[in-house]
Design brief:
The complex is a heterodimer of chains A (282) and B (313). Chain A is of the alpha/beta class and 282 residues long. Chain A has helices spanning 90-105, 135-140, 150-158, 185-195, 208-217, 230-242; strands at residues 34-42, 45-46, 55-59, 62-64, 68-71, 76-83, 112-118, 122-129, 167-174, 198-204, 221-224, 245-249, 258-266, 272-274, 278-281. Chain A folds into two domains: 34-72 and 244-281, no CATH class; 74-242, Rossmann fold (3-Layer(aba) Sandwich). A six-stranded mixed sheet of chain A has the order 8-7-6-9-10-11, sandwiched between helices. In chain A, strands 1, 2, 5, 12 and 14 form a five-stranded antiparallel sheet that branches. A four-stranded antiparallel sheet of chain A has the order 4-3-13-15. The longest helix of chain A has 16 residues, at 90-105. In chain B, helix 6 packs parallel to helix 8. Classes of the chains: A alpha/beta (282), B mainly alpha (313).
């Protein structure tokens, strides 16, 4: 990064983009209804056909009645949070743009998407919109430069959760270590725990923070061994989200405020279950 | 040089016309002009010419490293010539010039040049408080090279932690020496506060409150409030942290303070406010002069502004 460049007078200024008024979160914890995204797989493949009676759920150790289970019916809101630091250039950038465009093309009517990029600065390129056709040209215009403010970007992406009844997926792509964030790891993870939003991460190379982040949010990490894999992994992340069950229950017998630890399992049969480890009631 | 002293159409801060004009000059012509200026120019003119070469070195940055060195050396020669005319004024400027150039080389990831400039500066100005702080910033930059991301704030491997602690002790020691010479030097308080914040030392807030009290530029005041917010967060004083982050936002609406404020509001359970502030953060993303980003790479924009102001005086 070129420091200063004689101050703002010589710096090229990108266009400021207004964040559209997104509706309030769907995740209502006011101890009325808790909604929980759950991935159920066996041998790496989604397990279909489950209903409420198949799930056993404990909230702070107290067994709860799962009232409803929905699969693949609610529309998705996807925030693409993409690393555009200086290491993302050339072939990597080309494959990243193609991966983003493929994901947007796979969205359905009623789904929404937003595009947020981060180098040392975080930029909202396209606010959450149902007109997802506007994402592709924005992707095509991306250029890589600068440092990496991954944790700050994750916080801002999570604060974009919509207030409607769509399910939010934050899909983060990065290829390097954080070099520019103000927020600490614990601060960004606390945002994730409070937000109750599923975060999936696609990485080139390992990142300890992202591993902790997806664990805290009930998401998954996909590590690309080559840039050519990005499109496949972005699409897998979307498919994984669609294959998730959304469990709803009204908490009973548990204290209202504070951190609620959640445990989910199948009553009969074994499976790998991925869900966020709990939720927070302010 | 005259265009630089008066500024461009947008006022004294508009240095683009002067810097652009100088950038077109071939080095041989600049060398000839600088040699004749040393005998023909007054001290204020020589200082302005030195500052102009420094501005150009900053603008061309890491794109043409050889040219950076040429303009820095030319500026150094011009300041020496100014010293022969008016030692008091030239020394004041020269001290600021060293502070800025050390930061420039750090930002360009040229630590040996930064260390050399600190050494030269301290030889020329042995009792300059700000050059003790400049030496502290070189130590901080060495830490950054071994631990890329201190703000990550996760436990370090024991040997690395010892190394970092030793380095930050040296930072604090240099800054305390600076305060022995000038007890109101805000950068000394800021760097003591930063070192203590990073090492989770409760005394960070004391130093940072002093930095707020003595800050002589918006950049410094912004960083002091931002770091003070961080110190209060560490002490679980979230309301105080929120207040400091809001003060930083009020000084300069840069992204780092917005992100910090949004996160503090979220932690306090002010969900809607956290979202509003986060939205505002993405408004500011186009700006590339967040003092936090400068601080992370060792770049001292306030020193450049002081140098410019002195040249245009």
């Amino acid at each position: 990064m070129i420091p200063g460049a004689a101050g703002a007078a010589l710096a090229s200024m990108a266009t400021a983009i207004l964040l559209a008024q997104t509706p309030q979160t769907t995740f209502r914890t006011g101890v009325e209804v808790v909604e929980l995204d759950v991935s159920v797989t066996r041998g790496g493949r989604p397990v279909p056909g489950l209903d409420a009676a198949d799930f056993a759920l404990a909230d702070n150790g107290v067994t709860q009645d799962v009232q409803s289970v929905t699969l693949d019916r609610l529309p998705l809101s996807v925030v693409l949070a993409l690393d555009t630091s200086s290491s993302v250039s050339g072939d990597r950038l080309i494959h990243l743009v193609q991966a983003g465009q493929a994901l947007v093309a796979a969205l359905r009517d009623g789904d929404g998407a937003a595009l947020l990029t981060f180098s040392h600065a975080v930029q909202l390129r396209v606010p959450m919109t149902g007109a997802t056709g506007s994402i592709a040209p924005a992707l095509a215009g991306l250029r890589g430069s600068g440092g990496t403010a991954l944790r700050d970007a994750v916080h801002l992406a999570l604060e974009m959760r919509p207030r409607d009844h769509t399910r939010l997926l934050v899909l983060v792509f990065t290829d390097g270590e954080d070099t520019a964030s103000w927020l600490t790891e614990d601060a960004a993870l606390e945002t994730a725990r409070r937000a109750g939003v599923v975060v999936h991460a696609v990485t080139v190379g390992a990142d300890a923070f992202l591993t902790r982040l997806v664990d805290a949010s009930g998401g998954r990490t996909w590590s690309a061994t080559s840039d050519r894999q990005l499109q496949e992994l972005f699409t897998k992340a979307l498919e994984e989200m669609r294959a998730r069950y959304l469990l709803s229950y009204s908490p009973k017998g548990v204290r209202g405020t504070g951190w609620h630890q959640l445990k989910v399992r199948l009553r009969n049969g074994r499976a790998d279950i991925t869900a966020r480890p709990g939720y927070y009631v302010p | 040089m005259r265009a630089y002293r008066s500024g461009g159409a947008a006022g004294p801060a508009d240095i683009v016309p002067a810097v652009s004009a100088l950038a077109l000059w071939p080095q041989a012509a600049i060398a000839r002009a600088a040699a004749s200026a040393q005998s023909a120019f007054s001290a204020p003119e020589l200082i302005a010419a030195a500052a102009l070469h420094t501005e150009l070195a900053n603008v061309i940055g890491d794109r043409v490293p050889g040219d950076v060195d040429f303009h820095i050396e030319t500026a150094s020669d011009l300041l020496l010539a100014a010293r022969r005319r008016d030692p008091t004024r030239a020394d004041l400027v020269s001290r600021q010039w060293y502070v800025f150039v050390v930061g420039l080389y750090e930002a360009l990831q040229r630590p040996q040049d930064a260390a050399r400039l600190v050494h030269d500066g301290r030889q020329r100005h042995p009792r300059a408080a700000e050059l003790y702080v400049a030496r502290a910033t070189v130590i901080e930059a060495n830490v950054r090279r071994s631990v890329l991301d201190l703000r990550r704030d996760v436990p370090l491997e024991p040997r690395t932690r010892l190394r970092v602690e030793d380095a930050f002790k040296a930072v604090v020691s240099d800054c305390q020496s600076a305060l022995g010479l000038d007890q109101t030097l805000p950068t000394a308080y800021l760097h003591i506060g930063w070192a203590r914040l990073t090492m989770h030392d409760r005394r960070a807030a004391d130093a940072l409150n002093r930095a707020v009290e003595h800050a002589d530029s918006d950049e410094l005041r912004y960083l002091a409030h931002l770091f003070l917010g961080g110190a209060y967060e560490q002490a679980h004083r979230l309301e105080d942290a929120r207040r400091e982050y809001a003060s930083a936002v009020a000084i300069g609406p840069y992204q780092s303070a917005y992100v910090a404020l949004s996160r503090a509001e979220d932690a306090l359970g002010h969900v809607d406010r956290a979202r509003e502030v986060a939205a505002a953060a993405t408004h500011t993303a186009a700006s590339d002069d967040d003092p936090w980003w400068d601080f992370r790479i060792g770049f001292d924009r306030a020193a450049l502004h002081r140098l410019r102001a002195e040249a245009q005086r």
